[in-house]
Amino acid sequence: MARTSLHKFDMENGYKRVITSDNSDLKHLGFSHLVLKPGQKIEYEVTGEEIAIVLQKGDFKASVEWKGERFLNDITGSREDVFEELPTSIYLPPKSKITIESESGMEARIFTAPCEEGNEPYFCAPEDVEEGNPGAYIYKRKYRFIFGPPTKHNSDVTKKLIVGESVSVPGGWIGFPGHRHDYKNSEEQPLEEIFSIRVKGPNDGPGTVIQYSSDVENGERWNEFFVIEEDNNAISLPVGFHTSFAAPGCTEYLLWGLAGEEKVYKVKFDERYTSLENALY
Fold it and tell me: Can you tell me the distance from the alpha carbon of 51 to that of 30, in angstroms, rounded to the nearest whole number?
C-alpha cells in the first residue's frame, strides 16, 4: 500500500484544495492552490485552520480583516522567478478574511493546518525571509525560512505551520541524507510534510523524490519514487525517510511545509550516510 501520494492540480482560476485528509494519509497538514487571471479579485474566509500563502508568480494586492477590523491594508507582492527571487507570503489565522486581486495574474501555493485559534495575520515580504546557502558539491543548496521551525526565523508567526523553500545546484540534492520525523522520542518528533516541486533545465526536468522505509534500522524495507516532470504537483509525505534531487543539468525548486499535533521540530537522519556530514552543512 502506498504511503506517499502525488497530487496534480490544474491552472484554472480560483482557490482549490489539492491535498486534504480525505484524499491522503495526512491529518495535520493540507495543500491548496490559488490562481487569479488579470484583473480578477476574490474574497476568501479562513475557517477552522491557519494558512500560509506563498506567491509563485505574478502580482497581487490584498487586505485582511481579523476580529472585526482591517488588519493588513493594501499589501502588495510580485514575483517572476522562484529559483532566483525570494518569496512573498501571507499568514492567515482562523476567522480571518482576505480580499486579494491581481493586475497581471498570479499563482500561489498554500499550506493549511487545522486549528481553532491562530496568531495574528502577518505579511512576509521578501526582505523578511531568511536565506542560507549550506553544503558543498552536489549537496549545496539554498534554504529560505518563510515561517521557520521553533527558535528559527519567523517561527512565532504561525501556530502550527513550518514553511520554507529550497533550491538545489544543477544536478544537486535537497534534504540528503534522507530524514524522517515519525516518532516521539529524544531524536525526532512526529510531523507531516508536503513537497511541491519545480524543475528547470534541459526540457525542464526531471526531478525525483525518494521516500523509503521509516524503520530501516529494524529491517523494514519499502521504497516509493516520484519522477517530477511537470510543475503542477504536490506530494504528501506522512511517514518515512525522504529526500529529493534534480537530474544532471537541472535545478530543483522545492516548496515545503510541515505541521503536526505539536509544533516541535526534531528530525532523524539516515545514519548510514554520516560520513558525508562535512559536505552537507
Answer: 9
- Written as one letter, the residue type at 250 is C
Residue 33, H or E segment: strand 30-36
Cell reading at 47: 475557517
Report whether 135 contacts 281 (CB < 8 A): yes
Residue 77 near residue 59 (C-beta atoms within 8 A)? yes
Q: Are 125 and 87 in contact (CB under 8 A)?
A: no
Whole-number Å distance between alpha carbons of 172 and 168:
5
For residues 47 and 54, is the Cβ–Cβ distance under 8 A? no
The x, y and z cell numbers of residue 88, run together, are 512573498
Q: What are the chain's domains?
A: 5-280 (2.60.120.10)
End-to-end CA distance of the chain: 35
pLDDT tens for 18-60 read 999 999 999 999 999 999 999 999 999 999 999 999 999 999 9
At 48, is the secondary structure helix, strand, or coil?
A: coil
CA dist., res. 106 & res. 89, Å (int): 13
pTM given for the model? 0.95
